[in-house]
Amino acid sequence: MDAKVHELLNQQINKEFYSAYLYLDFSNYFEQVGLDGFANWYKIQAQEERDHAMLFYQYLQNESQEVTLEAIAKPDKVFTCHMDVLKAGLEHEQYVTALINTIYGAAYDVRDFRTMQFLDWFVKEQGEEETNATDMITKMELFGSDPKSLYMLNQELAARVYTAPSLVL
Ligand code: FEO
């Protein structure tokens, strides 16, 4: 495997674990303000991010490439309102999309078609995650200022259940 592609894939393991940590922090915020449905939604999101990390980990191992686990950064944002959290979520997903695109570009440059094929799943996934993050913001804009509507939105998010990723390596 090309050294640059390898380095970027290895870094992505860390980025995905950080994403899990970040969403766990979001979940923690919502738990503390009593919105248990939002907390549930982000806890499941954290689980999905751990799955993403493990997919990068497994892909490198399957390719007989060295894996190096680095320290996971502390999520250090202080949120003053619910909307801040949701906006940070969208911003983060846009950042992750850019990371995936960078790896894809590096693989493309060296005609690493196998890595490109592996990353195709993530390209699609990022589209879905940006849509989800945008929907959360829209719903909060529409309903967040009305306690009854916020209660119902919280109930809706409480119904989210974890499903394993459709990509199996
Ligand atoms: Fe692993 Fe939310 O991207």
* Distance between the amino and carboxyl termini: 18 Å
Can you tell me the overall shape?
A: elongated
CATH superfamily: Ferritin, core subunit, four-helix bundle
Low-confidence stretches: none
CATH class assignment: Mainly Alpha
DSSP summary, beta strand count: 0
Describe, in plain words, how this protein is organized in 3D.
There is one protein chain. The protein has 169 residues and is mainly alpha-helical. The protein has a single domain, classed as Ferritin, CATH 1.20.1260.10. Helices cover 76% and strands 0% of the residues. It contains five helices and no strands. α2 (36-62) packs parallel to α5. The radius of gyration is 17 Å and the shape is elongated. The structure holds MU-OXO-diiron. MU-OXO-diiron is lined by residues 16, 19, 49, 52, 93, 96, 129. MU-OXO-diiron (FEO) is lined by residues 16, 19, 49, 52, 93, 96, 129.
Summarize this structure as a short list of keywords or feature phrases:
169 residues; mainly alpha; Ferritin; 76% helix
Strand and helix layout:
Elements: H1 3-32, H2 36-62, H3 82-109, H4 113-143, H5 147-158
Bound molecules: MU-OXO-diiron.
The site of MU-OXO-diiron has 7 residues, from helix 1, helix 2 and helix 3.
Write a short abstract of this structure.
The protein has 169 residues and is mainly α.
